[in-house]
Every structure is written in structure tokens, then in C-alpha cells.
Amino acid sequence: MAKTIMVQGTMSNAGKSLLAAGLCRIFRQDGYRVAPFKSQNMALNSFITEEGLEMGRAQVMQAEAAGIAPSVLMNPVLLKPTNDIGSQVIVNGEVLGTMSARDYFKYKKKLIPDIMKAFDKLAGENDIIVLEGAGSPAEINLKDEDIVNMGMAKLAKAPVLLAGDIDRGGVFAQLIGTVELLEPDERAMIKGLIINKFRGDKTILDPGIRMLEEKSGIPVVGVAPYMQISLEDEDSLTERFDRKQEVGLIDLAVIRLPRISNFTDFNPLESIPGVSLRYVKRPDELQNPDMILLPGTKNTMEDLRWMRESGMEAAILKKASQGTFIFGICGGYQMLGETLSDPCGVEAGGTMRGMGLLPMDTVFAENKTRTRVSGTFGMLDGDLSPLSGTRLEGYEIHMGETVLKGDAKPSTQIRDSVSRTEKEDGAYRKNVCGTYVHGVFDREETAAAMIRLIGQKKGIDVSAMQGVDFAAFKESQYDLLASELRRHLDMERIYEILEQGI
């Protein structure tokens, strides 16, 4: 069975996911078979595996760092919030149902057999498992029913590295307070402390580190720097949403929907030199983009209602009438149609008017479409013609079926790798286009074609603004992450912790 080590944090966004990914890459570089594991993840950014099963993207990122294919074994329980008090519960990649927070709290320990079955299978196939916790292990109102922090560490017999975020201040109180709120047996499982996201001269920090070690009785195994690394982050806490940047030669605006999901679809575009990609949540922030991108959402109807009430829909419709490109993905694509109907109460229930930019109707069904696809854009005409014939690949994850009407034409021809059938997807008309395919811009040629069509419309030369090989780009980022962590973590001590266990 594999040796185990777990990264927990003093709070959400302490940097657990990146630290776990960095350790996965380091262990892989050192010749070990390594896999990530998070028993329960809460996120709207999800991914579909080759088998058509759904998992959190954080573990996909960590699997890439480990050099292996993503598997739902790495994230057996995924919670996708549908509102402030409830979530869709996904177990082993398939929807179990929707539960309120209170109902799930009572139910979740019944999932331990599923969690341990997944963990044991991974542990039997690898040398090392890097586990990730969630939030804080010191949430005293949740500890008795915990299946993701110390509860999981005990089940996996995993020594724990506890990380605190110094960038937001109070890191010493974070770490000491967390340790003090744990039970004695839990406290004994913490074998190392990590101060994360540090900026500046570490020698100034040294007196605090000595005091931290004296008060906790736990060694500090590293002070990790604040790293400018472009990798996926948790959806609700990403810094991408608040990043300020100058408008580039090509300016793209992503609508920051309240229930935005899978915004990772746009990461390849922001990697292209000369392209600015801005997340906007107010009409006045929209300005004059070359393209408006409508992302996926966990609740299409409620987010469309928000756009309508906030004035964002009116602003987008005005830009569309002026010729601005509009591109929607999944829920964003559904919004572009004429009607959205929910006879089964999958979302908000009832029927509502869409944005009317594409002649099509969407009906939400109880069964979720989960599959991987590949194919090409069709022979598009007009301003969208530079996309014609461009190859694409990605995955579908939605609960709606869309039917085209009138002069709307399918935007892509794709092959479903799960059902092994050919089908048409998406729609376009004039300057408006949409698709159900997440990851549509991941291929270098697709991202480049998108920039080319904007350049052609603006009459500017974009030949130097090439798309990037996004897979190769991510590999370079994982290597950079590992290199930085090797410099700032005591890997010799971490290997000792790994060997000794608990």
C-alpha cells in the first residue's frame, strides 16, 4: 500500500491545492508513482473523465502534476452548490441527488465506504498518495462528522502538513489557533507547519518561526513564496475575478455570473500575449470588448434573471446589435436562446424568456449529459468564418437539451467518445455563437482562430499573437511550481515525515 501525506490548511484558500500539486510533481520527478486524493470537494469547476464521470478540477490539476490520467477515484465525493443552503451531491462521478446542507451533514458518513474503496484502490496502485483537506480542520461545529480533514487523515493514516496564508495576515494566530483547537490525538498527527504565500525577506520572519515552533512543538518545514504561477484555482476564491489589467490589443470580457462554473474554459485565451481577459460583474465594467464570453453556470435561469435585473443583459444586447462578438459556453450558450423551460424543477422551474440572440429553445431534463467529445467547427459564414474547420475537443456536462429553429445553424460537428456517436452541437448566427463543449479553447489552433477572427473584424495584424500549446504550458508551470517548492520547503524533512507515517 502507498505511503501517505496530507496537506491541510488553516482556512479556505490557504494554498492547499497548489501545495498538494507541487508535492505530486516533486514525488513524480523523484521517480515515484503518485496520485492525489480529496475525499470531498465543493466546487462548480468540474471535469468529465474518459468514462463520462464527473470530478473536481482541482484533483484533475493535481493528477496532471503527477503525470497520470484523472480518475474519479481521486475525488469520490463532489458537492456542487445549487443555492446558499443546498448542493448537488455527486458520488463516484454520478449524481446521487440534491441535498440541503443539514441533510447532507446527517448523511455524509454513509459515504465513508465509497471514499475508502476509492482510496484503497488508488493506494494499491501507487507508491505515494498526496491527500488534500478542505477549509479548516478546526471547524468545531463540523469536526464530529468530518470526512475530509482529520477524519480522513485518520482513515488514511496520513501525517499532516498544516499550511497557513501569511499574505492575508495573522498567520501565527492561524497556525497556533488551529493546533490548539484540535484534540490531542489530532494535534499529534500534524508533523509539519508551512507558512504559505510569503513576500519579502525571510530572515525578518525567523524570530516568529522560532516562537511558532516553541509554542506548537511542531517544526516549520517551509516558508513558501507567493508564486506567480498560472494554474487552475478554486472557483469561489480565485484571484482572477478581481485582477486589474490594462486593456490589450484584443480585449475579451467574461461575464462573472453569480453561479459561474468552469471559468477554466478561458484560461488558454488569457495566456496569449496581447490579449486581455477581464471578468466583469457590472454593466459599467463592460466597456468596449471585442468579444463577450458567457460562461457556464450551475443555475442558468437564476443567473439569467440576475443579468436581467442588473442591467447586464441589456448592455450585452446593445453590444451584440453593434456587431460585438458574443460567445456562450454551456449555460451561457443556453441563455442566448429564445426560451428556457424547466418542467421538472431541475433549476428554478417554469419557463422564462432567453436573450433572443439565437433562435433556439432549451428544456431542462432530470438526466445529466456527461461525456467527452472531439470534432471541428462547421463551415461558418460571415464574421465567424475564421473558425471554420478548426478542430476542438473537450467535454459536455449539462442538464438541458437545446433545439435549433429558424436560421440558426449548428456551430460544431462532434463525436461523443462515450456513446461513440456523431452529432451536431451548438449554434451560430451572424456575430453570435455558442456550444455545450467545455475546454473548447484548449487546443492551440482553436484559441488562435478565435483571436484571428477578432483581428480580421478589427482590421489589425494578429499574426504574432499565436495561441499557446496549453498542455505544454501547464507542464512548464508544474515544473516551475515544483522547483520553487524544492527551494523553500525542507523536502528531506518531508520525506522523513512520509516514511515515518503516524
What fraction of residues sit in β-strands? 25-35%
Main-sheet strand order equals 2-9-1-10-11-12
Topology, number of strands: 26
Question: What is the molecular shape?
Answer: globular
Number of helices: 16
- Structural class category: alpha/beta
Q: What is the rounded Rg? A: 23 Å
Give the % helix.
25-40%
User: What gap, in angstroms, lies between the N and C termini?
Assistant: 15 Å
Rounded mean pLDDT is 93
Largest sheet: 6 strands, parallel
The parts where pLDDT drops under 50 for at least 5 residues are none
Question: Can you characterise this structure?
Answer:
- 31% of the residues lie in helices and 29% in strands.
- The chain is α/β, with parallel strands linked by helices and 502 residues long.
- It has a six-stranded parallel sheet, with helices on both faces. It has a six-stranded mixed sheet with strand order 15-13-16-18-26-25.
- β25 and β26 form a beta hairpin.
- α1 (16-29) runs parallel beside α2, α1 (16-29) packs across α15 (470-488) and α6 packs parallel to α8 (206-216).
- The chain is globular, with a radius of gyration of 23 Å.
- The mean pLDDT is 93.
Give a brief description.
It is built from 16 helices and 26 strands.
